[in-house]
Structures are given as structure tokens and as C-alpha cells.
Specification:
This protein is of the alpha/beta class and 288 residues long. 36% of the residues lie in helices and 8% in strands. The chain contains twelve helices and four strands. A four-stranded parallel sheet has the order 1-2-3-4, sandwiched between helices. Helix 2 packs across helix 4. It is globular. InterPro entries: AB_hydrolase_fold, BD-FAE-like_dom.
Length: 288
């Protein structure tokens, strides 16, 4: 939620290619990154995007008058922290998305111990310079496109995860994680401060939520597969079509953690993505 850009090296070209072959309009939108902005700003940005997509201004921006957007058939996808914005659109945006796909995504359940307690550095923590964190925190420049090489903004996430202050950082509320950690899990939703409750998306999932497919690695130490498992079960209990595609022993990014650096995709990762796309296509065609 602190770093990244569609111009970065992790852009899902396979998703773009699928959209091109399927004659879908592909949109990759900027949104404000956490610090100094917060998760609530990211919700507002998701809402603003959907208002724009439904406006005459968007229609007039298309390259041909023969092109148009069917606002009843918008799919949202999100990878890692980007899944938070995709999930936010499913809760708060108008028009409502028709289907959701996330991959190793944040936001299915932000009340897990994983987010309220300190924990050891993950395997990708060594890729950042934690000495840079004070400079990053002192910089109050609003960032919506972290495309500058060496920006090191992901160091914020790593620092917060190690300290158990991830929720403090993404919501801009010092002490939030520690306060919630003192409360038994079952009581945490009520313990969230009133002004921050809208940011805990799992508490606002209802019967109008769209069908959703979740892809996650079982060895993900950055965003645990419990995030996807929780929402998959939650939607199932509501009678909403949902599918959970777990890639065995895959780490964050669906990579093989034992394949060296840079890591290779885990066995079964691309097959899981292909199954997820089948779910999305079926939802858009009304064939789920």
C-alpha cells in the first residue's frame, strides 16, 4: 500500500494480453500511496475512478466513438496491496464492479494477528534499506505513482511489519495496531475507532458484493493466505459465487522461494491465473 507503479517490473502482462484478446478495455489507475496518504484516501480514489468511468468525460476520452464502456460489466483486479483498492471498489464504488479477482491480496481481513503484532523480517525485507525510513516519514509529498528507481518506499511497509505498526502506518493512526492487539480477535472489529471503521473492508461485505476469485500462495509470508481464505469463506456464507485458488508452497508474488534471485514463478502459478481468468470471463458473460 506504500509503493509500486504500473510502470514497474511486476506489471501483469499476461492480464493485459488476455484483455486485448478478449476485447476488454484495460485500465490501470493511479491511486494515492500510504504515507502521507492513508487507506481512507485509497477508498476515495477507488470511488472517484468509478465515477469517472461512468461519466461522459470518460466516454469522450476513448479513441473512437464506436467504443463504449458497459458499466454493468466492470471487473476489478488487485495484486498484493493493490487488492485493497479493488476490494474497496466492491464495497463503496458506484457503479458496482461485476466481478473481483485478487492475487496474494491485502484487505480480506486486516484484523488478523499478522497485522497487529510484530514479526520477523520477511524474505523480501533485505531488498530495502531500513535506514531510509526516517527520511521517507519526514517527506509529506503525496505520491500516487512510485516509479522512481531507488525510491525505497517499500521500506515503510517492511519497518511497519517488523514493528507491528502496519495498521498505524496505513491509517495514519499511531498506536492503532497495539491497541487492537490488546483485544481478543473476536472483539477487534468493535474496537476500531469509529472514523477508521470504513477502512476495515471485511466488516462491510454484504449480499451485494460481486462474485470473486482469489489466488494465493500457501507460503506467502508477506500477505498470509488467510486473507483470501477468510473472504472466500465469508462470501460463501452469503451465497455469493467465489473460488479460491491456492498455489502450494508459493511465496508472495506466487514465486518459488527456493529458486534463487530473481525468483522464478512457482509451479502451478500461471495455471491458477488462467483459472482465475476463466472465472472473470464467465462472470462478465453472465455464465457463472
Amino acid at each position: 500500500m506504500t509503493a509500486g507503479s504500473r510502470r514497474g517490473g511486476h506489471f501483469p502482462t499476461w492480464l493485459y494480453d488476455h484483455c486485448q484478446k478478449s476485447t476488454y478495455i484495460f485500465i490501470s489507475a493511479d491511486y494515492r500511496l500510504c504515507h502521507p496518504s492513508t487507506a481512507l484516501d485509497q477508498i476515495a480514489d477507488a470511488q472517484a475512478l468509478f465515477r469517472f468511468l461512468a461519466s461522459p468525460a470518460f466516454q469522450s476520452s476513448l479513441p473512437s466513438p464506436d467504443l463504449s464502456l458497459d458499466t454493468t460489466k466492470i471487473a476489478v483486479t488487485g495484486f498484493s496491496a493493490g487488492a485493497y483498492s479493488a476490494r474497496a471498489a466492491c464495497v463503496y464504488a458506484t457503479p458496482k464492479p461485476a466481478v473481483l479477482m485478487t492475487a496474494y491480496g491485502t484487505g480480506g481481513n486486516l484484523l488478523l494477528d499478522h497485522w497487529t503484532q510484530p514479526r520477523p523480517p520477511t524474505s523480501i525485507a533485505k531488498m530495502v534499506n531500513l535506514d531510509d525510513v526516517p527520511r521517507l516519514l519526514a517527506d509529506r509529498t503525496v505520491v500516487s505513482d512510485d516509479s522512481t528507481p531507488g525510491s525505497n518506499r517499500f521500506a515503510l511497509t517492511v519497518r511497519w511489519e517488523i514493528d507491528g505498526t502496519f495498521l498505524d502506518g496505513v491509517f495514519g493512526r499511531p498506536g492503532l495496531g497495539a491497541a487492537l492487539n490488546k483485544v481478543e480477535y473476536a472483539g477487534r472489529a468493535e474496537a476500531v475507532p469509529e472514523d477508521l471503521k470504513p477502512g476495515f473492508l471485511q466488516n462491510f461485505v454484504g449480499k451485494e458484493y460481486p462474485p470473486a476469485v482469489f489466488v494465493h500462495g500457501t507460503a506467502d509470508e508477506v500477505v498470509p493466505d488467510l486473507e483470501s481464505k477468510f473472504q472466500h469463506e465469508q462470501l460463501g456464507q452469503l451465497g455469493i459465487r467465489t473460488e479460491l485458488l491456492l498455489v502450494q508452497d508459493a511465496g508472495h508474488g506466487l514465486v518459488d522461494l527456493g529458486s534463487g534471485f530473481p525468483p522464478k514463478m512457482a509451479e502451478g502459478a500461471m495455471e491458477a491465473y488462467a483459472e482465475a481468468l476463466k472465472f472473470v470471463d464467465a462472470a462478465l458473460l453472465g455464465k457463472l
